[in-house]
Amino acid sequence: MEIWLLDTVTRKAGVIDKGVVDDGDYDAAWSPDSKWLAYTQTIANRFHALYLYSVASGKSTRVTDGMSDVRSPAFDRGGKYLYFTESTNYGTTTSGLDMTSDAFDVTRSVYALALAADAASPLAPQNEDEKMPAAREKDAKEKKEPEDQDADKDRDKDADKDRDKDKEKDKSDAAKNDGARKTDDGKHEKADKSEKTKPVKVDLARLEDRAVALPLPPADYTDLAAGKEGILYLLDSGNRFQADRGETLTRFELKTKKSRKLAEHVSGFDLSFDGEKMLIEMGHEEPQGAVPATGPAPTFLIVPSDAPVKPEEGKLDLSKMQVRVDPGSEWRQMFHEIWQIERSFFYDPHYHGVDTAAEEKKYAPYLDEVGSRSDLNYLFQEMLGDFSIGHLRGNGGTIPHPNQVRGGLLGADYQITGGRYQIGRASCRERV
Length: 432
Hints:
This protein is 23% helix and 27% strand.
């Protein structure tokens, strides 16, 4: 498995790494300044190690020692830390054909790595004097009695009214100073741009020694994403036998060291660029009755990224979405792509004696008679069978599933009269 880097400006492309095992399973993430690429790659023991690639030097550095399986690297938005998940009991499942591995559940812990040698550890203790005023005020509120909290709420309401009056006055003042504000905004935009392009400092020496486990329970984490600075999002499948029911989405805040469950039965998620919103795909429910040809309809939500998902919140209406397709053209493309893939990736350069060009030409005329995806799968199975190798098959796709209407069946009693069959009684009203 090769990892390529393409520069869209110079249009130059090159291989930055090649795995020992061609399993095609890797994760990758760019640093905020796009100068570093964190990725995982399979090594000789079939574990995944963590690497850092420097765009400036064009070199990759292995970060982890290979004694654990590393997945899902993600840079913190602040550029100080690199997050990833790591498993130390993955070894029993490196071979899927070894059925004894089914008795074990792989668990992973979440780690944060300080990229610069002089960066504070993400778990460094924080003194009371070092806390921001807002954090100290929050801690004080949490320690108060309920009565004191109610009094605080009343004072907050009065303060809100005063703030509303101040906002009205601010609007009037803002209109008068609009020109000055535009000038200031231009300065702020320049400042923001300079902050966004702040380089990420990485000290490669003893980098792995600066990794610490975050206070999250070990679990079968299948995905990790970094939101705003110091915010992590994790998907937990529970275990391999519960994955089909959807996963649990959790939000973790590095500053408070607290996690919060956002949603269950999740199939996947993606964060907006600013980290304010997220798109969530919910797991499919068990279909009732006939399944449509396209399969169960997906459910997508667009919701805030900092609060648990409420029922029916942010649900997208996909009922009117339409896609124009030309099945015949798609099937013809798939047919030729299969032969291209076999010529590119089949392990034997002689293809078990199969002349791939001649076989492709031989089976191509059958495409004119393909009327459904089931027909296409049958064609794939016939032509791939010539390779005489296991696990090379064709199935799946959009298979028609017509809706069935249960109705009555015509029945009859018959008798033999004059040496011939004769209907004695017809049963046309009975239903089954």
